[in-house]
Specification:
Elements (H helix, E strand, L loop, with lengths): L1 E6 L3 H12 L4 E7 L2 H11 L3 E4 L8 H11 L5 E5 L4 H10 L3 E4 L4 H12 L7 H14 L8 H11 L4 H8 L3 H15 L4 H10 L5
Parallel strand pairs: 1-2, 1-3, 3-4, 4-5
Helix pairs in contact: 2-3, 3-4, 7-9, 7-10, 8-9, 9-10
Length: 208
């Protein structure tokens, strides 16, 4: 049996989700909490397999509760179940240690499936959350990770001290094309000139 702790400040939500989960042959509702403080106490007492955590609650919200539970019990598996998809909720919840992120608009069967998948070590994210995370990852990417293969190739040749004309001759491309690529490299690395680009390349071990 997968033991689940339900955390939500709305009794009807707990009743609805709890009734559906309790009817499943492999899931048991081990306890219920209506705020973050109760969630922490019950989580550490009951040590459930899965915690279904609401975000916006009185006394203590789900993000704070998730962080404190993970700090005290790193193995805890927490599924956020909320109505919110805004960035100030999604990222802090995942950074606090939540394993999965579901919306309350999900079907009860989808919540049950998320419980099973999370229990077996998978992370379950709403498609909208996945999209947001991909955007966030791209924003956090290092500048040189945005370079194309050709731009990286030209950066390596720049590091070897080759001029634009020498790069054009070696790669069998037009000088004008090389200048465009060099300009793109400087722009993506956010540097002012070739020297700074080469320093960046050595600093980040793009060239050795």
């Amino acid at each position: 049996m997968i033991r689940v702790l339900l955390v939500d400040d709305h009794e009807m939500v707990r009743l609805g989700v709890g009734s559906y989960l309790a009817a499943q042959p492999d899931i048991e509702v081990a306890g219920e909490a209506e705020n973050g403080l109760q969630a922490i106490k019950l989580a550490l007492e009951l040590r459930p397999d899965i915690i279904l955590m609401d975000l916006v609650m009185k006394e203590m919200d789900g993000i704070e509760a998730t962080g404190q539970i993970i700090d005290a019990w790193p193995e805890a598996k927490i599924i956020i179940v909320t109505s919110f998809l805004d960035d100030e909720k999604v990222y802090p919840a995942l950074e606090a240690g939540a394993t999965s992120y579901m919306l309350k608009t999900s079907k009860a069967s989808e919540i049950a499936a998320a419980v099973r998948n999370t229990y077996h070590g998978q992370s379950v994210l709403e498609p909208e959350v996945t999209g947001k995370m991909m955007v966030k990852m791209r924003q956090k990417a290092l500048p040189h990770e945005q370079l194309t293969l050709r731009e990286k190739e030209i950066l390596l040749l720049m590091a070897q001290g080759k001029t634009n004309q020498e790069i054009a001759d070696e790669l069998f491309i037009a000088l004008k094309t090389v200048k465009v690529h060099v300009s793109n490299v400087l722009s993506k690395l956010d540097v002012q000139d070739r020297t700074q680009a080469v320093i960046y390349a050595f600093k980040h071990h793009i060239v050795k």
